[in-house]
Design brief:
A: alpha/beta; Rossmann fold; 6-stranded mixed β-sheet; 6 helices; B: MetI-like fold
Chain lengths: 207, 248
């Protein structure tokens, strides 16, 4: 029997000058589960995601992460001059047709936006496009860095429901400040502390 | 539609002012009436010589413009990628930007035949405009989009079109729009100085020598019209490209 591996990180160290952000962080993110990373601002949550994704070099430590990966970054990182559907096709290629993209957009409250240039959208709309792009891409592991930032309560509820359906059974590492989001999505919770950025607390939502 | 009518009425207003001014002055050497210019144009347009002159000048001016676009873009890409190239090209671009067209033209007459003078002059006018705009576009590229592309494993061609081309095309569009008009102005000016046989510039020069003010105005109208036509056609092609890229 082949057991699929989750994301394994061991003894991660990362500093910005004299500011130690990760100091020997180790964890095994369970395959097929949603792990929320919580903690105060500046405790290294986004840095942790960035080093696991490989976009930030580590000082030392080992990261084992199955590929391909997908992500919603802290910023939207959309191409402003492309249309919404072109932004999605940029990562998915021709896997989805116009109709399929339009149908998915309408499920997150972006009906008829597929041919709009991203620069014409509001902040909340851009956030939803960034999330949809991440969910429609092929991935083994999905990284979400405060994916519902800037959404009003009703939209957030709609998008969270949509998102939950899409990530069921997938390995997801999810940074949030919001207890409700944490409770809604997470199978496991990791709390980072500013002092040394080791796991301060570990909760299994099922227990 | 209403906007077009208003624009047309504005043009008509100035034509009427011109007509009244010319009639009041009553000196056709100093200021010819628009009606006389229109009559002169109807005499010029059916002649083969007219079309040969238009094609001669348009061909050379557009060739210089195209070369300028290509070179300006190429140099901007190199400068965007390598810091030392940016420093290397900086004085050259500053000189090209500031030297008057007349100086270029007289110098160019020593280097090339008057026949191809407008190619060189329009090229030299076009390069700094395209270079500076394209470099601004390249500098505005968000490095975080490159990270995004590597995270999602976007293939090189899609990355080039979706991230790089989509970002710099608006800068290219504004550079090309500005450059094509200036190329026609400087190209015609260069031809008036170099007087290559069979060019629009030669016709303007002859009009000046023989005090044929109606010819001078008629050829000026032709330059404005052909320049605008080239600009519209080129910008339409760029717009199609932009739309294609925006939708990928």
């Amino acid at each position: 029997m082949i057991i699929e591996m989750g994301v394994i990180v061991s003894d991660l160290k990362k500093s910005y000058g004299s500011n130690v952000v990760l100091n020997g962080f180790s964890h095994e993110f369970t395959n097929g589960k949603v792990t929320a990373v919580v903690g105060q601002s500046g405790c290294g949550k986004s840095t942790l995601l960035a080093v696991i994704m490989g976009i930030l070099p580590l000082d030392s430590g080992i990261v084992q992460c199955p590929k391909p990966i997908s992500a919603v970054f802290q910023e939207n990182r959309l191409c402003d001059n492309l249309t919404v559907s072109a932004n999605i096709r940029l990562v998915t290629g021709k896997k989805y047709g116009e109709r399929e993209i339009a149908a998915q957009l309408s499920q997150i409250g972006l009906n008829g936006c597929e041919n709009k240039a991203v620069r014409e959208l509001s902040g909340g709309m851009k956030r939803r496009v960034a999330l949809l792009r991440a969910l429609m891409a092929d991935f083994e592991v999905l990284f979400l860095d405060e994916p519902f930032k800037g959404l009003d309560n009703d939209t957030k509820k709609l998008v969270m429901e949509y998102c939950k359906g899409k990530i069921a059974g997938k390995t997801v590492i999810f940074v949030t400040h919001d207890d409700c989001e944490c409770e809604f999505f997470s199978d496991e919770v990791i709390e980072l502390r500013i002092e040394d950025a080791r796991i301060a607390d570990y909760k299994d939502q099922d227990t | 539609m209403k906007k077009h009518v208003i624009s047309l009425l504005c043009v008509l207003f100035w034509l009427v002012i011109w007509q009244i001014g010319a009639m009041a002055l009553d000196q056709s050497i100093l200021l010819v009436t628009p009606v006389k210019v229109a009559v002169k144009l109807t005499e010029l347009i059916p002649s083969t010589d007219f079309w040969k002159s238009v094609l001669f000048s348009a061909g050379r001016i557009l060739a210089g413009f195209a070369l300028g676009l290509f070179t300006g873009t190429g140099l901007a890409v190199l400068s965007g990628k390598y810091g030392f190239m940016r420093r290397l090209f900086s004085p050259l671009i500053s000189v090209l930007k500031s030297v008057p067209v007349a100086s270029f033209t007289i110098l160019a007459l020593i280097w090339v035949s008057s026949k191809n003078l407008s190619v060189l002059v329009t090229f030299l006018i076009c390069v700094p405009i395209v270079y500076l705009n394209m470099l601004e576009g390249i500098d505005s590229l968000d490095p975080k989009l490159k990270e995004m592309a590597s995270i999602f494993g976007i293939p090189p061609w899609r990355r080039f079109v979706g991230i790089y081309l989509s970002q710099v095309l608006p800068y290219f569009r504004s550079a090309a729009g500005l450059a094509i008009g200036l190329c026609w102005k400087s190209g015609a000016a260069a031809e008036v100085i170099g007087i290559p046989d069979g060019s629009i510039g030669e016709k303007l020069y002859q009009a000046k020598i023989y005090l044929e003010t109606a010819d001078l105005f008629a050829w000026t109208v032709v330059i404005i019209f052909v320049s605008r036509l080239c600009e519209k056609a080129f910008m339409f092609a760029v717009k199609l490209l932009v739309n294609r890229v925006e939708r990928m």
